[in-house]
């Protein structure tokens, strides 16, 4: 069941009809059942996997809370981590590592013949695994008490708006919302309805209109445009993945608001920033903060000297790349962003010796003496870093190329075309679609703060916004019910 389908609209309508007529405990039971129906719509077998791992983490957290010794607490925490990472590795990484080891051994003259597992990847397994595992870690750190109400915890893990593609919401933030009665506010319903509509525009208009261009561009091992036009396909993917993932997050947050829940903001203006550090404060915010708090800081963060700091950045982003998928291109994407973060940190500490611009271009200091010059420089930095980001997206998209084509070979072929410094017969016709839809995506990023507070808009702007969104959906929307890109993670 996907958000951009008639089935989901009917499912949401029925769920809300009963939800508004029930009291708190009954609402939680309804949402729990609805969430498992929503998840089981893809494959009911994986709903049982989700239920089993969630129940085990519920009891691991209780046992950690009750343990009388530090040794027992560590034992139960380790059991939770092994359970979650074990399930994730079996379903997502076993074949990748088995194949990689087999290639290595064959290069040494051995013939191991490792088995492979022909299993379907459960939808959203990386999201709910991180969600559940962070809960037991927080209980172990004594940052929160373990709940004794299984319904509340199960709902926290499987709450259907964020279940399959995030945001990755911490237990300390969402679990209290499951435990306490919710208050449905008019402002929340208005803002939620607008976020759903906005998310649909991003998904069915921007992302799904650009998808055919991207699929055409990556359908083979060679870029179809053997000159600078090849950038157009990479631009198309940059705005496709923004519209697709940001659109999902908007719909998830909007649906949650209709039921009195608040999810964390997951996107701001990622293509209007000037450096890699700012990018990860504006793109997939819930994952970047998860990696920071549960991986980078425990590794030592920046507390053990520059060399260790750079190593921690590289390790964190490498595992972040691996979280997205088992493949050389995803690992390269993680290393690429790790290197960008390390270089930026070194530059900030040793060359510029002052904080780099951390936010979107719209946040330029209005009190600067030379506002025009500074703004021009900032815009230039935004443009340059956007292209740096696009090279990363080339690596990322190569991770999903057709089978039988080397991922890194695709990257090499594209990079060769992208630096050809010629347009051949001129700009390709896809330029118009990429420019218009990309411009719309940039507009949403430029106004991201305004978009979150629709209820505060003047009436004329509310009417204009709703009519414009409905017109775009009706005129340009793709209604084949395509899945969201991040479902595969």
Layout of strands and helices, then pairs:
Elements (H helix, E strand, L loop, with lengths): L5 H14 L4 H17 L3 H23 L3 H38 L17 H16 L9 H9 L12 H9 L6 H32 L12 H29 L17 H4 L5 H12 L9 H19 L3 H25 L18 H28 L8 H12 L11 H17 L1 H4 L7 H18 L13
Helix pairs in contact: 1-2, 2-3, 2-6, 3-4, 3-5, 3-6, 4-5, 6-7, 8-9, 8-16, 8-18, 9-14, 9-16, 11-12, 12-13, 13-14, 14-15
Distance between the termini: 16 Å
Overall shape: it is globular
Structural class of the secondary elements? mainly alpha
Give the H and E element order.
HHHHHHHHHHHHHHHHHH
Low-pLDDT parts are: none
Average pLDDT taken over every residue: 88
Helical residue percent band = 55-70%
Overall number of domains:
2
Protein architecture, described:
The protein is globular and about 70 Å long. The protein folds into 2 domains: 177 residues, no CATH class; 219 residues, no CATH class. The mean pLDDT is 88. With 489 residues, it is mainly α. The protein contains 18 helices and no strands. α8 runs antiparallel to α9 and α8 runs antiparallel to α16. The longest helix has 38 residues. Helix content is 67%, strand content 0%. The relative contact order is 0.11.
What labels would you give this structure?
489 residues, mainly alpha, 2 domains, 18 helices, 0% strand, globular
């Amino acid at each position: 069941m996907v958000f951009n389908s008639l089935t989901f609209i009917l499912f949401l309508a029925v769920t809300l009809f009963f939800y508004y007529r029930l009291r708190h405990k009954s609402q939680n039971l309804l949402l729990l059942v609805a969430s498992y129906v929503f998840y089981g719509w893809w494959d009911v077998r994986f709903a049982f996997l989700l239920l089993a791992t969630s129940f085990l983490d519920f009891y691991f957290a209780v046992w950690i809370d009750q343990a009388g010794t530090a040794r027992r607490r560590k034992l139960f925490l380790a059991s939770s981590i092994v359970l979650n990472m074990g399930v994730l590795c079996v379903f997502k990484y076993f074949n990748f590592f088995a194949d990689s080891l087999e290639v290595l051994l064959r290069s040494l003259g051995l013939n191991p013949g490792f088995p492979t597992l022909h299993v379907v990847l459960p939808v959203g397994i990386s999201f709910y695994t991180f969600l559940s595992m962070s809960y037991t870690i927080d209980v172990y750190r004594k940052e929160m008490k373990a709940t004794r109400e299984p319904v509340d915890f199960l709902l926290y893990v499987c709450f259907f708006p964020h279940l399959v593609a995030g945001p990755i919401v911490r237990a300390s933030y969402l679990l209290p919302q499951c435990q306490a009665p919710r208050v449905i506010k008019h402002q929340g319903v208005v803002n939620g309805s607008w976020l759903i509509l906005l998310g649909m525009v991003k998904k069915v208009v921007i992302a799904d209109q650009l998808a055919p261009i991207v699929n055409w561009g990556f359908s083979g091992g060679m870029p179809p445009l053997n000159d600078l036009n090849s950038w157009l396909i990479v631009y198309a993917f940059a705005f496709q993945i923004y519209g697709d993932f940001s659109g999902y997050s908007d719909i998830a947050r909007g649906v949650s608001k209709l039921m009195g829940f608040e999810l964390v903001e997951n996107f701001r203006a990622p293509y209007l920033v000037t450096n890699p550090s700012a990018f990860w404060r504006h793109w997939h915010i819930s994952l970047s903060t998860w990696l920071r708090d549960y991986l980078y800081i425990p590794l030592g963060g920046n507390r053990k000297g520059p060399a260790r700091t750079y190593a921690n950045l590289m390790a964190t982003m490498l595992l972040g790349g691996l979280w997205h998928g088992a493949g050389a291109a995803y690992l390269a994407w993680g290393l690429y962003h790790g290197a960008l973060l390390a270089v930026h940190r070194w530059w900030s500490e040793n060359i510029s010796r002052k904080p780099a611009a951390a936010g979107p271009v719209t946040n330029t200091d209005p009190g600067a003496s030379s506002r025009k010059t500074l703004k021009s420089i900032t815009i230039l930095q935004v443009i340059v870093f956007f292209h740096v980001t696009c090279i990363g997206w080339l690596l990322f998209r190569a991770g999903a190329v057709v089978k039988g084509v080397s991922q890194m070979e695709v990257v090499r072929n594209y990079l060769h075309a992208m630096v050809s410094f010629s347009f051949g017969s001129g700009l390709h016709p896809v330029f118009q679609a990429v420019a218009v839809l990309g411009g719309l995506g940039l507009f949403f990023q430029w106004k991201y703060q305004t978009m979150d507070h629709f209820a505060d808009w003047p009436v004329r702007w509310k009417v204009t916004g709703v009519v414009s969104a409905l017109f775009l959906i009706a005129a340009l929307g793709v209604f084949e019910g395509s899945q969201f890109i991040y479902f595969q993670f």
